[in-house]
Amino acid sequence: MQKRAKYVLLAIVLSATCSAWADKKPEAPKVNSAANSGFDRVVDRVIAREAENNKVLRRYSPLVETYLQSMRADPEFGMVPSGDQYYLHRVGFRRALDETSFHAEPGFMSRIMRQASKQFRPEMASSGFTWMMTVDLRGLDRAHYSFDYQGREFLGDVRCIIIDVAPKPHSGSGRFFGRIWVEDRDYNIVRFNGTYSYDMRSQYLHFDT
Fold first, then answer.
1. Which pick of 42, 79, 153, 166 has the fewest CB atoms within 10 Å?
2. Looking at the predicted structure, is the pLDDT value of residue 157 above 90?
3. Between 141 and 127, whose confidence is greater?
4. Which residue from 70, 68, 67, 124 is spatially nearest to 99, judged by alpha carbons?
5. Residue 119 structural domain
6. Residue 180: is it exposed, middle or buried by C-beta count within 10 angstroms (0-12/13-18/19+)?
7. 47: closest CA among 142, 121, 125?
8. CA-CA distance, 102 to 87, in Å (whole number)?
9. Domain tally, the chain
């Protein structure tokens, strides 16, 4: 009788435990939730830091030199230079990218732009290349971009967080699409690699800044 009472007591305990487990709603894994929360904080700091850097950049008007070298296929030597183009202009960042050319010859830039348009969109001959100095001068934010954690990596002796960045639907053309490297101390973007989203009227080059 004593052994049977133990079995009955054990059955009651198991029944009560199973009942309590069934009533309890499953919870999301705490580890993943904490990791996501940590990454969200990183993204917030990157966005804030990039906004501050863009704000500071608008105070300056740098002198920019752009050199382009065209290549052609050669049956004996492979790819060889076939021509080059050189641009010198000053860029302002106050509202949008404003450029002032230093080529004095009348009509020079218009001829170059017509020639460059065969390979590049016309803006690339001047401020278009300068646009690649920033991820997005209009702003890097959650309203227009999604962010995806890709791990960590050293750039030289700088520890970096790797993040893939993609424009959200209907964010407009000219939005950055690619990968950024963020140093993990002050969360500055130290490298970005990719291109800009485009539509049927505009195309962009791939770049590594």
1. 79
2. yes
3. 141
4. 124
5. 56-208
6. buried
7. 142
8. 8
9. 1
